[in-house]
Inverse folding.
């Protein structure tokens, strides 16, 4: 068992769940399969949702009258309105999503780089766009943590995705109590992780919690800033400052050689020779050894279930982003 909040994640249903692709197939996805233990999935196949069966004739995105349309060449059906209606209903009934995993390259679910044909009736000439369903979902939820399935085979992209969805799920669950105390507990647990991303915004979060506003306003302001913090890439200087903040209370208990080792790692990290996790692991072991209760439970050390990286570590699979 674990103490992680359960993220609510939308997923293209053909990934691991259902044989709903145009050719009647399903795509095996180890990551999605492993996530089932820790995540509540909302599965959706928009093409089946608008009444296309499986298997079915392929559909594509085509520019007609200057606008993007979803079209089935074999039946000459324009499916644009049906897909817009389906997307509207989906977003209305799923406003509590923490994230979404989309199938790549689909005219419906693809996030980027989906073919948009310039003309009806020809395969010649196309640009790149996003799928019609994914575009509608992301327009409605601009802060939604989203990835396409293939990018999640890159370990750092996956770590970022997992960190964001598990922290946001924890925030969602904390806000459900509508108690400032629960929000303060959330803040304490995630403070060092936030400091690694953005020190200024983390200070702002602390000030929001001390304001005299009513809870709803505090919750809205707090959530907006957490979204900004988590969508920013951690700054190296902020990470080093945070590590030094953790190091300070243990330093008096360490030998001089342990201290110099720590500073050599920081130097290596500053010069891109050492990974962040190497220093984090060392600091975590010291906080355990010296029983620093306020630090040891920080989400920075354990933001998501580590088993969700196992398939990548075992296969040493690394997707290179072009
Ligand atoms: S990519 Fe989307 S629309 Fe296509 S089969 Fe998968 S879930 Fe259905």
């Amino acid at each position: 068992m674990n103490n992680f909040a359960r993220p609510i994640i939308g997923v293209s249903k053909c990934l691991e769940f259902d044989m709903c692709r145009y050719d009647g197939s399903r795509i095996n996805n180890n990551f999605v399969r492993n996530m089932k233990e820790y995540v509540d999935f909302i599965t959706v196949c928009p093409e089946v949702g608008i009444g296309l069966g499986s298997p079915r004739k392929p559909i594509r995105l085509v520019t007609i009258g200057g606008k993007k349309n979803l079209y089935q060449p074999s039946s000459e059906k324009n499916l644009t309105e049906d897909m817009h209606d389906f997307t509207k209903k989906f977003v209305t009934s799923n406003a509590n999503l923490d994230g979404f995993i989309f199938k790549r390259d689909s005219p419906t679910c693809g996030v980027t780089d989906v073919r948009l044909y310039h003309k009806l009736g020809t395969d010649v000439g196309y640009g790149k766009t996003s799928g019609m369903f994914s575009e509608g979902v992301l327009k409605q939820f601009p802060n939604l943590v989203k990835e396409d399935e293939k990018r999640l085979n890159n370990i750092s992209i996956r770590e970022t995705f997992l960190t964001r969805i598990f922290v946001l799920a924890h925030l969602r669950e904390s806000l459900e109590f509508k108690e400032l105390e629960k929000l303060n507990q959330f803040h304490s647990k995630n403070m060092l992780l936030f400091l690694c991303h953005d020190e200024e915004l983390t200070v702002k979060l602390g000030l929001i919690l001390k304001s005299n506003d009513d809870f709803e306003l505090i919750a809205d302001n707090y959530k907006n800033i957490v979204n900004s913090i988590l969508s920013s890439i951690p700054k190296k200087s902020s990470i080093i400052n945070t590590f030094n903040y953790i190091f300070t209370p243990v330093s008096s208990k360490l030998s001089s050689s342990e201290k110099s080792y720590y500073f050599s790692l920081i130097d290596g990290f500053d010069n891109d020779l050492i990974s962040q996790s190497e220093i984090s692991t060392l600091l975590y072991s010291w906080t355990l050894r010296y029983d620093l209760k306020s630090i040891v439970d920080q989400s920075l050390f354990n933001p998501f279930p580590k088993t969700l990286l196992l398939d990548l570590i075992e296969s040493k699979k690394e997707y290179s982003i072009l």
Notes: The pocket of iron/sulfur cluster is lined by residues 12-14, 20-21, 45-47, 103, 106, 108-109 (CB under 6 Å). The chain has a mean pLDDT of 94. The CA atoms of residues 58 and 183 lie 48 Å apart.
